[in-house]
Amino acid sequence: MNQNKVISTAVLFLLLGTTIPAFAQKGQEEKGGGAEKAQPQRAQQVQRQQRPQAVASNRGGGHYGRIPDDHYRAHFGHDHSFHMGRPQMIGGYNRFQYGGYWFGFNEGWPVGWDYNDDCYVVYEGGAYYMFNLRHPGIRITLNLF
User: Are residues 31 and 97 in the same domain?
Assistant: First the structure.
């Protein structure tokens, strides 16, 4: 009987010893701590400082405003295609960077589109859209970050 108590106590201590650090780490992540989170945030701050600033707008056009007209004409529209590459999942959005800006989308990827297709971004009717040159007529609504 004593042997069962010793084994049970040892197992209990082992379980506690493995779960407490996991809970402590999770709590630290939720508070925004941890070395893994600090590095990407610094990288994002540097990215924001180097990109052209979006003009604030309440007329739609994305999550954080609108690209200035002169920069838009120089880098966006049908005549300025690019290969998006594989997007990154950040904050619930699939995001990609192009022309000094981060764009995000949270709708499904259209059937037949490839991440290496020639795409372009257009601003129409107060919103940004991405079109694929190989599949005209299909578009993805974008948010500007």
Answer: no
